[in-house]
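quick one before i forget lol
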Amino acid sequence: MKVKAMIKQNNVLREQMTPSNRFYMEDMILEMRSSRVEAVRAEELLLEAANLMLREQSNGKDAKQIFGEHPGDYFREIIDSIPERPMRSQWNYYLMISWASLTSLFAVLAIAGLILLWITGSAGIFSQISLFTILLVGAGSVVIIELLMKWLSSLSESDAPRPKPFDLKGLGVYVVIVIIAVFAGAFLENLFPVISISPWVSLILCLGGGLGLKLIFFRS
């Protein structure tokens, strides 16, 4: 059974629980989905727990009598048995996020700069970049992705994020954020050095960044 199907089945089972048992079960779900347990295995365990809850509920037992005082107790041994991500792997993950974000930043500078250069003869603001912008995009992207992943893991109708079709709206939002970062860097030029950069150089950096992502982080 697929993850989404198991989640829907779990939702159906929870509707048959008493309010107190349902609240307890929802706390168990949050504990499990925020853990390092693989998505399919996590939903299998949660579905088994929901079925057990209903069977014992029909015998007059409540959640604490079935699973223990704390919602995380029942799965504690399983959760603790999953090894943490190695520190090196964690840093590689963060580096990949920053690398991809900066590659996207230079893509925006290149595309917008070349268009403006073609129309007006000057790349304008897209021909320079502040050190502040580079730091903001590189570090800020890691924070945003981490917060997004934590939020997604807490959703009741979804588990691990899955690849989706090309999202033009999502791309537009990111481009706007990057452009805002560029302008913010321009306003802080007195505090951070501003680097002049040709749109063609930005294009080379973008292509190099994309190639680096492929060769370093997405090797088959």
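fyi Residues 3-81 form one domain.
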